[in-house]
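Q: Got a minute? One more chain.
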Amino acid sequence: MAAFDPWDPAFLADPYPAYAELRARGRVHYYEPTNQWLVPHHADVSALLRDRRLGRTYQHRFTHEDFGRTAPPPEHEPFHTLNDHGMLDLEPPDHTRIRRLVSKAFTPRTVEGLKPYVEGLAGDLVSALVEAGGGDLLTDVAEPLPVAVIAQMLGIPEADRAPLRPWSADICGMYELDPPQEVAARAVRASVEFSDYLRDLIAERRKEPGQDLISGLIAAHDEGDRLTEQEMISTCVLLLNAGHEATVNATVNGWWALFRHPDQLAALRADHSLVPSAVEELMRYDTPLQLFERWVLDDIEVAGTTIPRGTEVALLFGSANHDPEVFSDPGHLDLTRADNPHISFSAGIHYCIGAPLARIELAASMTALLERAPTLALAAEPQRKPNFVIRGLEGLPVTV
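A: Always. Here it is, folded:
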């Protein structure tokens, strides 16, 4: 287990050799520092994502005491109120009800209708990067595109959008393993500020509905069910956070991988029809969400090892996406890879509701960069963020 150390900078720089060691040593491993069972194989991760004996929460069935867990500190309550009412951290029947209602306002037609806006915005951002002679691909293209898109969907006015990314980054800090107290404090503060803002915006939309997603969530109902105000707030925050964190990191992780594989970048530049398969392969090759946690609600068995109720499994997406039992030569970046069942968007009832939009955004920014910045090149070695769960870069300096 020495190779797996999510706080070691060397591991964070390249966790994939450690994953290979985990897979070689077995199908499940107890990791004492986080009190979790690590699951590194694609087949097991995929199966457990669909196994209803596991859950993102346990509070629909057990109290903290019954489950043998300690309640979160009272000072963290604003974060947990916000987080615990979102689809990602709920189980049926609440998850089923909320996802059904959200889906009414988040239809494929709505997503497809955003495509011209996404492509136009991507083109404008890349044109500005070219006009400046280069810059930071993270802050100039990767971040503003998905933030603007989800804000546009939600109906957040342009003048109010500046705090969205900082709020999201602070809240998402709580998804890392054992976050320190200062990270928790920032997450709590951001949870309060973001919730207060959305509560006021929802009140405005109740008085004057528009064509935006918040108005759609207010209007959504099914057999008398409606979203509560807290569920609407939590849903909006989830859609913003999940709607851009993965896309931002997939963009910069992907281009960093392309710069390190000039043969693949040359092939992509020669044939832009590779963009769809390139998006899938880059999300597999350097997975933006490395780990997804689940609580064991009833005893399960993996390869003869019993994992008891009350414990937590850490499903290693990054490892699953490099499993040689599923992917031929997984350490090789192949933009033409046809059979690519990566699980970067999860699976089962918690499969990413925004996956179609993320694919549109990733394809739009990649196409715009290929067409408008054909000589895009790395300007300096990027620094990786000191995070494990949400994998990304501090920046990606480029020239055009």
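A: Residues 52 and 297 are 8 Å apart (CA to CA).
Q: Perfect, thanks.
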